[in-house]
Amino acid sequence: MLPELKLQPLRYVLAIIDHGGFHAAAKQLHRSQPAISMAVRDLESRLGQPLFEKGNGHPLLTPFGHWCEPRFRELVAHHDRLSRDAMALANAQAGRVDIAAVPSVASRLMPALLASFVQDHPGIEISLQDGHSERVNQMVLKGEVELGITSLWLPNDALRFTGLLKDEVGVVCRDDHPLASEERLHWQALTGYPLIRNGTSRLLEGSPAADLLSRSTLYISNMISLTAMLEAGIGITTLPRLAFQEEHQRLRFIPLAEPRLERRIGLLRRARQSLSPAAEAMESHLLDKLLVKGGCSRNDEGPTAEP
Fold this sequence. Notes:
Blueprint: H1 7-19, H2 22-29, H3 33-47, H4 63-90, E1 95-101, H5 103-108, H6 110-120, E2 124-130, H7 133-141, E3 147-150, E4 159-174, E5 185-186, E6 196-197, H8 211-215, E7 218-219, H9 223-231, E8 237-240, E9 251-258, E10 262-270, H10 277-294
């Protein structure tokens, strides 16, 4: 049967070697010399060979002791390294977190959120991917990422959704369009103008403004192409405010007052699986930052679909 080696006696042996004797090792380790001597004798008994030569004023290693010394150091170092790594992971000082977010959140909100997170947790590696809401949902469901920030979420018992903020829908048009000077718009004011549908146009479904969708003949899913069409004056579109790219100076965003529509953006995770410590830290960070900003409640979670 293999001897069971306790770590503490190995530390005593190394301290005796490094500090030149049992008395010096005991003083360094804040232990009594008899306690150190007894632990070494017990270790030698377990191993079946002496580690130190007998009858010398200074501790001299036996040939067996010389063989053991580097291996004791390796074992103690490995243990300490493993303990440090485990503690770092448990305390969210190390590790990795994979996140997916819809493009508007990834580009508008995540830079500031990740900057503040990295400041608090510099040892955590972060991977951020963006994709449309259905893609984000699937990535979380399949375990490709631990957290998702998404909208247009459909109920799924395998997922847990916590509402973070509400993003109002408005009309986007060029700055010389007849609607550009309005402060708020009724959906009927859009009648007669070419409407370009996009991936978020589903927010109009089921509302009084749904009739506008049936009259639209142009659909563009890519935001770069959509922006180019709007700047060219080909038509108007509806977008959540976060999806509106404010850096395009020729475009205007006018909130839709009637019907008032909002997309609900929330944090998605698997319902019956624990998060890694790094992902737990990220979840807490996002909830703290975005719930305050969005004015939502921590209890605002569950299988609620978008309007």
